[in-house]
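Input set for joint prediction.
Command: fold jointly, output tokens.
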Amino acid sequence: MNYKDVVEAVCEIIIRAQTELPLDVVNAIRRAYESEESEIAKRNLEVILENIEIAKKSRLPICQDTGIPFFFVEIGRELSLDFDIKKAIIDAVRKQTPSILRPNAVHPLTRKNSGDNTGIGVPVVNTDVVEGDRLRIAYMPKGAGSENMSQLRMFLPMEADKIKKFVLETVARAMGMPCPPIIIGLGIGGSFDVSAKLAKKALLRSLDSMNEFELEILEAVNSLGIGPMGLGGKTTALAVLSELNHCHTASLPVAVNIQCWANRRAEVIL
Amino acid sequence: MIISTVDESILKLKAGDIVYVNGEILTARDKAHARAVEMLKAKQDLPFSFNRSIVYHCGPIISGNRVISAGPTTSERMSPYAPKILENVDLMVMIGKGGMSKEVVNAMKGKAVYLAFTGGAGAFAASKIKKIKGVFWEDLGMAEAVWVFEVENFGPCVVAIDSKGNNLYEQVEREVKARL
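tokens >
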């Protein structure tokens, strides 16, 4: 494996994520379409499904908000790499802007756009060392409409029973703005920063992998009636996905990262 | 129903109606709204007109002379600016997603409607855009510039806020709060 292989592989997963929604997400939207009764909810989901088809067939970005690029890299400990993986990822992001990626990265204060989706800390690259001799790169673009609706709260240690309510309040505050039906990433434990990272990482999980705790919150969210695009209906969220971390005995950090229906992700193993 | 020109007939649209748009639309999002309001406050002329226009809250991806993805952006961010713009027009149509503030709904009375286009449907929306007719304020960048598009059968759009102040989002919000 060399530098060029990594650049090419990353270019490929960027195109795949931006133009093809993962099957578990598409299937969840199809099920939502079947279950909705109101005409407005059904029409919105119909447009979403048609949009997914057009994007896949024409290799066009599903949504014009192609997001800030997030990468989760797992490096096998037996691998020996004589090049900078982060630089290869940055190169790939630059290559795909603006042919597939809209330039979205700006300086936080001057608001000056870098023009190529890179900048201070962007793309965001998380790395982990794991067993084995493979390199695994997962890519998730994150749009701002949903990201802006996310929240974090430091609960008292014994307040775990308040987590569900916090999710409901966060979703009710967001209403139609994050493009429901949404996917809810829930990070529980760790610390202030770790809980937020867990909430984002949870969004990489399959929508078909929910446990009982997550399904219970999902049911409560969907009983709110916000519906597709906030115009009413049964489907406010497609999934609740959580990740846990041990935390200090004196704290309980909880982060809710909201994702739009366009839960774009793709990965490659080299 | 089809909207092709912005005239008094838009005042008859009712919240819940489903419409399609034909003709010319202007994109404008955060930076274009901020600049327009600054110029209006300074009594300067804009290089384009919001009067009797269809304003689309959108930051498209343009590749060459082609629109490749162009769904709506969150309209709420335009809420602080929209009343000043509405003050300066007789009639206007806005297209976006997620709805706008109470102040905007009030400023829209008797002159404007808000249409909701499905959020995230960027490729679908682009397929309804037939031509790029022009661009203003390109210095703001691709997403923030004001693009002039020729659209055909742009929709389905839901009349989410009508010119009498009926607001679908507010109705849903009331029900959601009661269930919380």
